[in-house]
Design a protein that fits this description.
Length: about 260
């Protein structure tokens, strides 16, 4: 399938576990991909691997001028921008609110929330020039409920939901659709490695065994939904929220005792 032939897709956090999955899948379906990330070595290597329809741009999502350069690079290299995937995000080290310092709070919101805001703001004119397109903001199941010891991350992901719905209302008449995906626990370094300043990874104390689908999610579980939401197949969907969590938010799937 080549659902995205002739289209240009910008993915932030494009070298990470989920981001690189998204980049490779869009490229495989014919898209020209712009890999936005602060990791220049990994980004350049991924672009080289994919070839002429891929370009790496160093993108600090908290910096509006960096965003402007990334969008300009997409248009100058490939002539247009059709899809923005706001995937970049970071996790805070677990701590109760009373022990969370303001610097940590500000860093998490700057990247997860302000980065998403700046992406929408900066990409919108380019999407209009392409006669419409799609934006998908990657939130989290933590954006759908409270989670002890993760206040900055939870707050940032809740806020992304409201930002997404506001953007959907503002941009719908420009044929720009805006939706969110809420992944659960996905098997990437984000889960398997400790956050900066943390001593343990989420995978160290999380088990999927009690839940309806008793496994960790894979990046491709999220990518397949992302491809649908950014394609013409989803042309009547905007301001919507999609959960990819194997039943995590449903709670434990209690099994009846054996007879």
């Amino acid at each position: 399938m080549t659902r995205f032939e002739g289209q240009t897709v910008l993915v932030t956090g494009g070298t990470g576990g989920q981001g690189s999955s998204h980049v490779r899948a869009f490229h495989a379906e014919g898209a020209q991909v712009v890999i936005g990330d602060i990791d220049a070595a990994s980004g350049a290597a991924l672009a080289d691997e994919l070839g002429v329809r891929a370009r790496f741009v160093r993108l600090d999502v908290t910096d509006e001028s960096s965003w402007a350069s990334a969008v300009a690079a997409a248009e100058s290299t490939f002539g247009r921008l059709d899809v923005l995937v706001n995937n970049a995000g970071v996790q805070n080290p677990p701590a109760p609110i009373e022990s969370t310092d303001q610097a940590t709070w500000s860093r998490i919101l700057d990247i997860n929330l302000t980065g998403t805001f700046l992406g929408i703001k900066t990409a919108t004119p380019a999407l209009r020039r392409a006669a419409g397109g799609a934006i998908v903001n990657i939130s989290s199941t933590m954006g759908l409920g409270g989670t002890a010891h993760y206040a900055p991350y939870v707050a940032s992901k809740w806020a992304v939901r409201g930002l997404t719905q506001t953007a959907a209302l503002e941009l719908g008449r420009d044929r720009i659709r805006v939706n969110t995906i809420h992944p659960g626990v996905i098997a990437t370094p984000f889960i398997s490695e400790p956050a900066a300043g943390a001593s343990a990874a989420i995978a160290d104390f999380y088990s999927p065994e009690p839940f309806a689908i008793p496994r960790l999610g894979e990046p491709d579980d999220v990518t397949r939904l992302l491809l649908f939401l950014t394609s013409a197949e989803a042309s009547f969907i905007t301001g919507a929220e999609y959960v990819v969590d194997g039943g995590l938010l449903l709670g434990p799937a209690l099994q009846a005792p054996a007879a």
